[in-house]
Amino acid sequence: MATSMMHYFRFGSSKESTPVAKDKPVRALPASWYTSPEMYELERRAIFSKRWLLITHSSRVKNTGDWLRFEIAGFDFIITRDRQGGINAFHNVCRHRAYPVIEQEGSGNAKILACRYHGWSYGLNGKMAKAPGYQDLDGFDKEQNGLFRIHVKVDINGFIWVNMDAKKTPEVSWEEHFANVDKQDRYKAYDFDNYDLSHTYELDGHYNWKILADNFNECYHCPTTHADIPEFLNLESFDSDLKDGHIQHHCVSTPEQLAKGLYTASTYYFPATAMVVSPHFIMVQKFVPKGPKSSTMSYEIYRNRNSTEADFRLISDMYERVMREDKVLCTNAQRNLERGVFVNGQLHPKYEKAPLFFQETCREVVTEHYKRELEEAREIAPARQNVVGGGEDVSASDEGICAGLACGSQREVLAW
């Protein structure tokens, strides 16, 4: 780990971030951060294992037994509505032999979550229901063998957030970065209860997830590449407010845009979700990492049930055209990042301040986590579950052997 990762960081140069001059261009993250398998795995541990992720809206699991299945950065998980009306999230893995308890993609409804490998089953709240034959074994505790739970937060507008941190209380609280983000003043113009899911779609591509976030968070490229943008964005007044954990994009709408309902409240939530709210539709966009050089742009489109088909389609179709144009931009940029020529470019401190803010957040979060790994001379994977319910000593011994093999070539670097 250490030998291959050292060159990504500049430890010792300064304890604080370098101030950004407002009248000078700023160097972006290097291409290696968008292509390296080692960096991607570090981001899985430092970001996607411990940060709150905005996933979907609770209206998608209205009824008892409704479930949704997602995969983000290699984490396969399900969201369920239990018999008490609660919303839960679990890793999609049976506690017996790691087979998925839900094999179907997308969504569905179930009375019980059953693994078809050996017949272990779980309630909608994740508690173990049955493990055939294990009722006769001493030392087997059903209470310790429920599904691996994921932390859930449902915000005031009904959106579901998850945190993969295996600790009983996540290291990063939702309030730490998102307090009142669901109570933005501009949200007062919308009644989120009036929106229903219209459709979803995905754009798979050959690009790192950070390219998608960089692209979403600036409109410097909009006049050049998106003919539809002036219909719903007044680019002359476009600006971004940089918050702790999120970015609010805004502009002053023209009278024509106001009359057509083509004004939007756009928010990016670190690390990998953006949401656009308008009178006629809501778009939830997730930048879903699949690997260091592949991602999916995942879209949930909600329609205001009081809007006409024409009003909804006008803005929904325009946004989809823009998203497909963005896919081309991100794909072609990623190709050149992989050619071994380009190191990094200079970003504009005004027009690209939001991508700079996003990149600095990535840099800070990843660097902090990596320093902890160096100090403890081990990889720290917050989503990794603790072994409980018997046999912990045997598991620890087996794990120790494998860890020793993995770190053998790095012992001198880490000074173990």
Output mean pLDDT: 91
Detail the poorly predicted runs.
11-19, 408-416
Q: Rg from C-alpha positions?
A: 23 Å
In which order are the strands of the major sheet placed? 2-11-10-5-4-3-6
Q: Helical segment tally?
A: 11
How many domains make up the coordinates?
2
Q: What's the order of the H and E elements?
A: HEHEEEEEEEEEEHEHHHEEHEEEEHEHHH
Question: How is the biggest beta sheet arranged?
Answer: 7 strands, antiparallel
Q: Strand tally, please?
A: 19
- Per CATH, the class of the largest domain reads Alpha Beta
Can you describe what's shown?
It is an enzyme of class 1 (oxidoreductase). Keywords: 2Fe-2S, Iron, Iron-sulfur, Metal-binding, Oxidoreductase. Its cofactor is Fe cation. Belongs to the choline monooxygenase family. GO terms for molecular function: 2 iron, 2 sulfur cluster binding; choline monooxygenase activity; iron ion binding. By secondary structure, the chain is of the alpha+beta class. It has 2 domains: 1-50 and 190-385, Naphthalene 1,2-dioxygenase Alpha Subunit, Chain A, domain 1; 53-171, Rieske Iron-sulfur Protein (3-layer Sandwich). It has 11 helices and 19 strands. It has helices at 2-5, 37-48, 174-178, 209-216, 222-225, 229-232, 255-260, 309-337, 353-376, 392-407, 411-414, and strands spanning 26-27, 53-57, 66-72, 75-81, 87-91, 107-109, 113-114, 121-122, 128-130, 149-154, 159-163, 195-205, 239-242, 246-250, 265-269, 273-277, 281-291, 294-304, 346-347. It has a 7-stranded antiparallel sheet with strand order 2-11-10-5-4-3-6, with no helix packed on it. A 7-stranded antiparallel sheet has the order 12-18-17-16-15-14-13. Strands 7-8-9 form a 3-stranded antiparallel sheet, with no helix packed on it. A hairpin with a 3-residue loop joins strand 16 (273-277) and strand 17 (281-291). The protein is globular, with a radius of gyration of 23 Å. Residues 11-19 and 408-416 have low confidence and may be disordered.
